[in-house]
TrEMBL record:
This is Dolichyl-diphosphooligosaccharide--protein glycosyltransferase subunit 1. It is found in: Endoplasmic reticulum membrane. Residues 1-21 form the signal peptide. Pathway: Protein modification; protein glycosylation. It comes from Jaapia argillacea MUCL 33604.
Length: 491
């Protein structure tokens, strides 16, 4: 289970009432669209629903076992609306084969009332290179596997699943046989899209009986023209200094090219020619773009060998105050990293990246509570990449107390510890968050509130002062000692 529901869900957990209401809806239509990608696959499923009784406000969605295992992000909305609907895991799961989530509709439907529910998910590690090896001149082909039927605890009049590739070649796809509920060709391909369905009059399908009798597995193989990137590990450390009015963030990143392994030798000449004609092999990675916050300075990027001077940075100025999260997401600096050598399929590349940012961009003091509120982004977005494991450590000023934190989505764990560094007297409190399988939807901000007593503010200057004083005294004493070497000593 690796599904991290958004914060809204947690808030809704209080209002649980687990009534199994399988007969209160029917699906007039289900359409699922899968955007075939690299390490992230975006899936949108629209359920056109009709209420069969008055006052139905909890609609249940179902995910098959494999689908559930791959799903790292899930969001539910009414079609055409911005606000996400709260959902929560349904109490019972059937033989670990079907996972159910209850969605609370904004208002109960009357009998024959209709609504369109849109469920957006992001799947991670859902594709794999096939063939597993590709020569430098060959395309990068991937496979994606899926279940044929979208499951639902309600009867469905008609359903379709479309799998769409961003590059215009679907190489092959499963032509399912003896499909129940199909009246025509069970699968068709048109351009970049393979469509399974329409399938008609499907009974309630969220059960192991249905799965055993009717469910099928289908596979699509397609060319993918972009690198398949994975961040196997992201270790972020953010340090606040009120004294220096600075927020320093450092990321240690292990990047993995999850594309096919290189068949034969690598030819730099061919690589340069391909790059020159703007047709680089997608499984030979020569650069990646990272989205960093706006308003940053002193950006550094080095790997095991040292500073990587071929990187390109474009910093955006600090964002104006009061921007919404969505606007902030579109306001960033970009760093284009170019590893020293092109990264072949299966290879890893470790590097460290850091920057300073004015504290005023991410912290405010709340006079009402007497606390600072600090926001630290969960991660550095590498578009298209999944982050397998992330550790985010936020180091607060010395003496910080009354610490509370709010993560945009629940972490696997969070721990409070003490971080002792140079010139600290008592050590600084640090909060560490751990995450798994972050996607491009997990671009939220962790908020921390804390108090820094006036004396604690002075601790650092005092410590620095003491250090200077000690040096000064030492120097004073030093001058009184005759340290000249007595070269003219008589033998
Ligand atoms: C709901 O629709 C059905 C079929 O169209 C109709 O027979 C029934 O009277 C409707 N019920 C209400 C309450 O409108
Ligand atoms: C590292 O390389 C960048 C070029 O990308 C250069 O601007 C920077 O000064 C270098 N830093 C050091 C410490 O050499
Ligand atoms: C890359 O790292 C993974 C583990 O994260 C390891 O299994 C794999 O062997 C590494 N690849 C290479 C080429 O070293």
């Amino acid at each position: 289970m690796k599904l991290w529901p958004p914060l809204a869900v947690l808030c809704s957990l209080l209002a649980v009432d687990l009534v199994w209401a399988a007969h209160s809806f029917e699906n007039t239509a289900i359409v699922r669209t899968v955007e075939l990608g690299g390490s992230l696959v975006h899936v949108t499923t629209t359920y056109a629903i009709k209420s069969l009784e008055a006052g139905s406000s909890r609609y249940t969605i179902a995910l098959g076992r494999d689908e559930h295992q791959k799903t790292s992000w899930l969001e539910v909305r009414l079609k055409g609306q911005q606000a996400a609907l709260p959902f929560e895991r349904h109490g019972t799961h059937l033989d670990n084969e079907v996972y159910l989530y209850d969605v609370t509709l904004p208002k109960a439907l009357a009998t024959n009332g209709t609504a369109n529910i849109v469920v957006e998910t992001v799947q991670t590690h859902a594709t794999y290179p096939w063939p597993q090896e590709a020569a430098q001149s060959e395309d990068q082909a991937l496979k994606y596997e899926s279940d044929l039927f979208v499951l639902s605890p309600y009867e469905t009049s008609v359903q379709r699943t479309k799998l769409r590739s961003s590059t215009p070649s679907i190489l092959s796809f499963t032509q399912p046989e003896e499909v129940s509920f199909a009246t025509e060709n069970p699968a068709t391909k048109s351009g970049t899209t393979v469509t399974y369905g329409p399938y008609y009059n499907i009974p309630a399908s969220a059960s192991s009986d249905f799965i055993a009798a009717h469910q099928q597995h289908v596979t699509v193989q397609y060319n993918h023209g972009f690198p398949v990137l994975e961040v196997t590990k992201l270790k972020r450390a953010a340090e606040v200094s009120h004294w220096g009015a600075n927020l320093n963030i450092q990321d240690e990143i292990i990047l993995h090219n999850a594309g096919p392994r290189l068949k034969g030798h690598f030819s730099r000449l061919q690589h340069q020619t391909q790059s020159y004609y703007n047709r680089p092999a997608p499984h030979v990675l020569s650069w990646a773009t990272l989205l960093l916050p706006a308003g940053i300075s002193n950006v550094y990027y080095y790997d095991l060998i040292g500073n990587v001077s071929t990187s390109r940075l474009r910093t955006a100025p600090s964002p104006p105050k009061g921007l919404s999260q969505a606007a902030l997401n579109n306001h960033f600096s970009t760093l284009e990293i170019r590893p020293r050598y092109p990264l072949m399929g299966g290879w890893n590349y470790s590097f460290t990246l850091g920057w300073d940012a004015p504290l005023g961009d991410s912290a405010v003091w709340d006079a009402k509570t007497g606390k600072y509120i600090l926001g630290v982004p969960v991660m550095t977005l590498i578009p298209g990449a999944v982050v397998d494991e992330a550790e985010v450590k936020i180091v607060l000023p010395e003496g910080a107390s009354d610490i509370e934190f709010f993560a945009p989505f629940p972490a696997l764990s969070n721990t409070l510890s003490t971080h002792i560094s140079y010139l600290d007297t008592t050590g600084r409190p640090a909060v560490t968050f751990e995450y798994k399988d972050l996607t491009d939807k997990h671009t939220g901000t962790i908020y921390i509130t804390y108090k820094v007593p006036f004396l604690a503010h002075l601790k650092k200057p005092i410590a620095v002062g003491m250090a200077f004083f000690a040096l000064f005294s030492l120097a004073m004493g030093w001058r009184r000692v005759d340290t000249r070497i007595h070269t003219k000593q008589k033998l």
